Predict the 3D structure of the following.
Amino acid sequence: QEQLVESGGGLVQAGDSLRLSCAASGRTFSSYAMGWFRQAPGKEREFVAAINWKATYTEYTDSVEGRFTISRDNYKNTGFLQMNSLKPEDTAVYFCASGRITTTQAADYLYWGQGTQVTVSS
């Protein structure tokens, strides 16, 4: 069983940066893909970014391409989402997830964190 815990969220102004972390406590993280998703109030959970287990492949949703960077440190069992040039529309609860394949589909991920709130004011 893998447990994921996100941290690093907060309240920032438009144009600021935040770095989210995802700490894993199980034995599968370093061999599984990792994804970040977000859910804004009244909206469905949406894909943000994904990275394969070797960190040789990444994928982003169009709205964050060039502003967000996903990375991981398998020795520390931790994943990251660096978010730059934040916009009010980035406001959401951000979740990290891990699974066997690198995918944009939430249903394909096996383990999820509890989420961390990111609020961007204009």
The mean pLDDT is 97. The two ends are 40 Å apart (CA to CA).
